[in-house]
Amino acid sequence: MQFIGLAGEAAIHRILYGDLHRFWIAQGLQQKSHRGDGGNDLPGLDIKCADMIGGKVPNLLIQAKLIKPETIYILAIASVDEPKKPELLEVKVLGCIRGSSARVHGSIVEFHYLNYLVSAEQLTPIDVLKWPELAGDQQLQFADCSPHAQDGV
Fold this sequence. Notes:
The chain has three helices and eight strands. The chain has helices at 2-17, 21-33, 99-105, and strands spanning 45-51, 60-63, 72-79, 90-98, 107-111, 113-118, 129-130, 141-142.
């Protein structure tokens, strides 16, 4: 499962930066420090990637005790047609939601822990991700990652 999670994180790095250079640097630093990422794959982002083994699009599950209102949670799915060839893995990023919105729009379910469950349909499409660092601004910015932001709801 760690492989699937790393594939999702790599996909977001490629979307934001255009390559995987920073992804490999971050992975090296984490391995040297023997610490995880503290729940943020990138500053302010928590990327959840699930496999498509069952063939059904998964929901986003966020542990209730770990959810942070300001964090943006991203759901991605990974699939591979030939399991013996992991280099053919494909990752599709489904969308994002802020922790504060997940608390309002998600439902509480118990799956090992209490979790907020947010369906893929409630996520804001990921094409709203912007990384203004390219313009000199170091802050990650997103369009409104609340459900139905496009509808004004």
